[in-house]
Specification:
The complex is a heterodimer of chains A (347) and B (307). Chain A is mainly α. Helix content of chain A is 72%, strand content 1%. The two termini of chain A are 40 Å apart. Chain B is mainly alpha-helical and 307 residues long. The chains are: A mainly alpha (347), B mainly alpha (307).
Chain lengths: 347, 307
Amino acid sequence: MSTRKASVAVGSDLTRPGGPTPPARAARPATRRTGRARRVPLRTRLRRDWQLLVMVAPGFLLLLVFSYVPIVGNVIAFQDYNPYLGDNPLQAFLHSDWIGFGQFQLLFEDPAFWDAFRNTLAITAFQLVFFFPLPIFLAIVLHNLLSSRLRGFIQTVVYLPHFFSWVLVVSFFVAMLGGAGLLAQTMREAGLEPWNVMTNPDTFIILVTAEAVWKDVGWGTIVFLAALSTIDQNLYEAAAADGAGRWRRLWHITLPGLRPVIVLLLILRLGDALSVGFEQFLLQRDAVGRQASEVLDTFVYHFSIATGNYGYGAAAGLFKAAVGLCLILAANKIAHMLGERGIYSRS
Amino acid sequence: MTATIVRKPPRPRTRRPVWEEKPTLTGQAGKAVLLTLLVLGVLFPLWVILVTSLSSRETIAEAGGLVVIPKGIDTSAYETILAGGAVTRALWISTLVTVIGTAIALAVTVLAAYGLSRPRSVGYRWLLAYFLLPFLVYPPLVPKYLVVTGLGLKDTIWALILPPAISVFNLVVVRGFFQGVPQELLDSARMDGANDFLTLARIVLPLSRAVIAVVGLFYAVSYWNVWFDALLFIDRNDMYPIQRVLQSYLLAGQAPHTSGGTSGVTMPPTESIKMAVVILTVAPIVAVYPFIQRHFIKGVLIGAIKG
């Protein structure tokens, strides 16, 4: 018993690298310790760490069932999947015919798919220009507020919509801007012809961007506020002493200080270029019509689960995922070439 | 001996440094207008909806739809929808999903975060990669649907609770916090013979209340907000969570997928009833939010930096 305790104690000493901060980790004579840890036989380590494995198990199972099995299940994209073969999806999967790339061929000939593809890219591009810079701008304004109480109040208010569901956000917009909403009501009272932006396909891209801004512009400032607070204040003082005005300080100190964060978020956004949101579009699809509002994610839903054509939807989903993965790798590569850290660089 | 100095970010400034220029009038005015509009943009719709939900039929007719300036308080809309029927049932189901779901998700996340907080434990690198990969590759919709239905979870609350019960983002946040717990505390617990479960329960968790609160809020909000999973997995009207009922009340004309969802109400809902449903959906979030708000900036940041 005593030996076991001792081994546990030694083990605990080995398992911890010291402090949580990377510099401390690097500064310790880590190599020797790793070398010693390697020599501990697996059985001893299992006896030492079995409780940790037990702790990890529930999450492991959940991810296995609801993430990894579906990821592998993507192979039905290469099948003529028929849900009525057998009693459950597994049997249906085993009995369905393999048809290779047939689903993809159909997909690429489908004009509805290309509509969705175009809409997705258009919305991504539009939001990159009209949404992405707003949190940066707002964060700089908030950061320069002197009254911490006022800043806290504004932050509290503008973060709030982030926690609303899309059903709520769209409901808010319908109540304010819809055909029976406050805007139309006010315009009617003023004797004007009310316009209903909620059902107009031509302005849909502006509408969804406005909704996204309303929901998340405040939340988006958090990461920029954090980056702003790490900029050395002495830089500003030195620049001011050298005669730099507030716009020059903004350009030469603040924005370079934010650069790594901006690049990181741009990469993530580009990697996600094919996902522009899902519930938001599904909720408004019937109001403005498929032509304007179908995006790739809603396409997958409407052409598979809603119609029972599972293999087809899986193919569309797989195509989107594959392109998305390529995009994020490419964006990361570009970031590395520009001398930024990107997302995969290990510290 | 290398000191582990964690440099704290400087506090936000509260006074104008002497070297800075005096603010211009236009700049100040512009800022004031911008921020006022921003705050009103969030609060004004909430106000209008709240006032309308508390207005009588006459006040609403007089205003021509939505009411901006309150004229007396009339709670009949709330009495109607809380007397039983679709909304009451949906509120119960959403509450059930939120409470059970948050409890399960927090337990799973905390355990996994502690289990993954120790480099050089058995299988550490493999397990970490296993847990982080779903962050990059989302589970695809169609196979996920087939898995959940294949497990027979359709039309049960478990279809809403189990699939999102571990979020990699929250896991990373909690794990980052656990790794910041001072090593001396853990060592002393071990010296006293505490095993890992005991250490987690007695040492680590009491130190992590803030991050648990934040992550708990994230989970609770996402369970309360569940809509699409309900569209996928819940076909029975009497199992609808509140977001689906809200959708059929407010956006019915827009989303015929849910037609027939409001089996409890036969006549078209009045404006005040619609707005009361919105308020009941928003209320729990607005109620919990201020208590946790001050924690979450810190919590999210830890996750962002470590992740």
